[in-house]
Amino acid sequence: MANITELKKTFVELFGGTEEGIQSYFAPGRVNLIGEHTDYNGGYVFPAALTFGTTMLLRKRSDNVLRFASGNFKKTADITLEGATNEKEHDWVNYPKAVLVHLSKRGYTFSGYDVYYLGEIPNGAGLSSSASVQLVTAFGFMTAEGHPVDRVELALVAQESENQFLGVKCGIMDQFTVANGKKDHAILLQCDTLKYDLIPFQAAGHKLIIGNTNKRRGLVDSEYNARRAQCEEAVGYLRQAFPNLQLLGELNAEQLKANEHLIPDETVRKRARHVIEENDRVLASVKALKESDLDAFGQLMIASHDSLRDQYEVTCKELDVMVEEALKVPGVLGSRMTGAGFGGCTVSLVKDESVDAFLQEVGRAYAERTDFKADFYVAEIGDGAKAL
Ligand code: GLA
What we know:
Elements: H1 4-15, E1 23-34, E2 44-60, E3 66-70, E4 77-79, H2 94-105, E5 113-119, H3 129-144, H4 151-164, H5 173-180, E6 185-190, E7 195-200, E8 206-212, H6 220-238, H7 253-259, H8 266-290, H9 294-310, H10 317-328, E9 332-338, E10 345-351, H11 355-369, E11 375-379, E12 386-387
Helix pairs in contact: 2-3, 2-4, 3-4, 3-5, 4-5, 6-8, 8-9, 10-11
The structure holds alpha-D-galactopyranose.
Alpha-D-galactopyranose binds at residues 36-37, 39-40, 170-171, 173-174, 339-340.
């Protein structure tokens, strides 16, 4: 967590005035434990909020200007919300701008503020740095203005702003997790209905290790949208058997197996298989966790990665190597890519006594077999957006 005393000093250096009236907010990053590329198919996901994320300081101004600055990026911008559009030149500022524009569309009003961010989440690593910025903004501004704070609404507005204002067709998982996370709990979310359960992540004697391949997610937007389109195509074919079918997440593996001949294209068939089997895996892993069967949980993580590699085809050499090397270390129960894929991070479930060997061995082998050096974080599960 960032040092607020230091941040306040920086804030005053940047914007002038005194520390009086500065408010501080925080929103985490997230790691998805299992259930990848199921959210936009109306399926289940099982993510958790992290203890690191984005801190935002803000102080009310007497006009309607929003002055944005960040400790991570050089770009600063002064904007007003009326008529605001996505401008390339505004770079990262488009994220908070998008969410505030979409909150305004729902009738919420905002005065001007000086705003300063400090993020701890590596960018482009698939740990939802952008959802973290969106939610710290939405939560902080709504609280500061005395508007009602409904976390599910904030997540939906953030997703809508990313879809419509920024043109990224992401699902709801990231924003929902960053808004609703709870310390030591993972969230079982049904993405169609947004019904959710907070499940205690009971894994005494084990750690979750996030491994950053440091391969930035390439191609992610175009390939992501292509996968979405293939899922919709599969739904179209499967309607011959299920006329009211809207989303792949409504089917189970048996229903698909009996009807997959209706999908003529082998690639599209593989995409559908991944989504539906992954959906079943989420429920199986929650059951395993509740029964303290961490071995079974680990096996499901491995099956998830295999499917993302072979059927959904969203891994890359770096992710595959990191998972492969992780699974060679004794005491590693499971390992998989997390997030959209094409680079970014893996998550592994590791026995306490194997953590050191993991960091050393996976780090060494990964550097040997790829052009990158890995970073590792022993993850703790934290709370969703909050005032500090
Ligand atoms: C990205 C998207 C999410 C989800 C994952 C894949 O993180 O933002 O909505 O689709 O990819 O599971």
